[in-house]
Design a protein that fits this description.
heterodimer; A: alpha+beta; B: 6 helices; elongated
Chain lengths: 194, 213
């Protein structure tokens, strides 16, 4: 589904006040925010399949390099312990301020391989290169672009976008209820939602 | 699949028919109803995949085989399981393999597992810390609701009870605009509970003829 198709369906579901009040650009902004929120939510719930299209891996040759894309979440950083060894050691994430304490000496804290992320730079303390796996922060090139998450997440994205739009408006108690219409688990366990 | 019957049933439930004395003409266009049906279809099929209710998804199961790595099929919807093998005995027959998604697969790449890794839109078959041949079982995309074109002539690939639940959900979503009410969501909630809880008796149960207007 493209963003313009999603805008069309959002406008279909907006009640009469919303249909005349919100412009396409506002609905588009709500959809963007919804895509980002849902992508983060799926990651935190451990559901990797809906955000599978955002996955990418990059190889960096030194101890520090910028990532090509802005990351949504960095899932893993595998490093090569020695300059001549393969990339098969898992590096653990540490906060930038902790990594900077021993960065100059390149001595691993407690002997483990570690990495951090500062600005757009990946830094690690192994001798060889590293392979970084992460989910790309969703981009929005145009309204005709496809929503990057899996097809079955599009209903939930539209639902979230509508609840975002209604929160911006006044007289919320007069609007139709959105926020959870495409969350089947919630509907079954919590009863109906108005 | 042909959506004519389902569109008509939704209109009946929402009292959206031209001859209705209170509402002249259609409130919902055919495109609106089809969009709601297809979104509900994807959502509910994905929910059934997560619940591993494969007895309801038999019409959507499929497999694909490859060597070392390959792109996911165009009709891929959700993963099920994987198998791998090599050409060297005794590994030259298919063995069940672990299935890893994205980052978890990356950290287990050289762990020596028999594994199928799905990363982005690619599948990798790993065995004995190297590439092998493999087979991925997956759920296909369900055929879309349509009124015209090739999609309208595709056969139904799910039991009737699943389509009835899809219809109930789509009705609940559309109804929220015109008349905020808990009735449609309550109907959908009961239908969904029935679908996932009563597997022994629901499969041959055909609801289409029993729907009351």
């Amino acid at each position: 589904m493209t963003y313009s198709q999603a805008i069309g369906f959002c406008r279909t579901l907006l009640d009469e006040s919303g249909t005349e009040y919100f412009e396409d650009s506002e609905i588009y902004e709500a959809l963007k925010q919804s895509v980002i929120e849902k992508a983060r939510e799926y990651y935190q719930r451990g559901e990797r399949d809906p955000i599978r299209n955002l996955w990418t891996e990059e190889y960096i040759s030194g101890q520090s390099a910028p990532l090509t894309n802005q990351p949504l979440n960095i899932e893993a950083c595998m490093v090569a312990p020695r300059a001549t060894s393969g990339i098969d050691a898992l590096a653990l994430y540490v906060e930038p301020q902790m990594f900077s304490h021993y960065e100059a000496n390149r001595i691993p804290l407690s002997g483990r391989y570690e990495y951090t992320f500062i600005g757009n730079l990946i830094k690690h303390n192994a001798e060889g290169g590293a392979r970084v796996g992460y989910y790309i922060f969703p981009t929005f090139p145009s309204m005709e672009a496809n929503i990057p998450l899996s097809d079955y997440a599009h209903g939930a994205i539209i639902d979230r976008a509508l609840s975002i739009l209604y929160r911006k408006d006044v007289l919320q108690q007069d609007h139709a209820g959105f926020g959870g219409l495409y969350d089947i688990e919630q509907i079954i366990t919590a009863g109906t939602k108005q | 699949m042909n959506a004519a019957v389902y569109v008509q049933r939704i209109r009946q439930q929402l009292e959206d028919e031209p001859e209705n004395s209170r509402k002249k003409g259609y409130f919902w266009s055919d495109e609106d109803v089809l969009m709601a049906l297809n979104l509900s279809l994807d959502t509910i099929v994905q929910f059934l995949c997560k619940k591993q209710a494969y007895y309801l998804l038999q019409g959507l199961t499929s497999t694909v085989e490859g060597i070392a790595s390959m792109n996911l099929p165009n009709d891929y919807f959700y993963h099920v399981a994987g198998k791998v093998k090599t050409t060297i005995a005794p590994e030259d027959v298919y063995h069940p393999a672990r299935l890893f998604l994205c980052g978890i697969g990356m950290t287990n790449w050289n762990a020596g597992f028999r594994a199928v890794h799905i990363k982005g839109n690619s599948v990798y078959f790993r065995i004995n810390n190297g590439f092998g041949a493999g087979r991925l079982s997956y759920i296909k995309k369900p055929s879309r609701f349509a009124l015209t074109g090739d999609a309208a002539s595709e056969p139904e690939d799910l039991p009737k009870t699943v389509y009835d639940v899809v219809l109930a959900h789509a009705t609940a979503v559309l109804a929220l605009r015109q008349e905020p009410t808990v009735r449609y969501l309550a109907n959908f909630s009961k239908a969904m509970q029935f679908l996932v809880s009563d597997s022994a008796t629901q499969l041959p149960y055909n609801l289409q003829e029993n729907i009351s207007v």
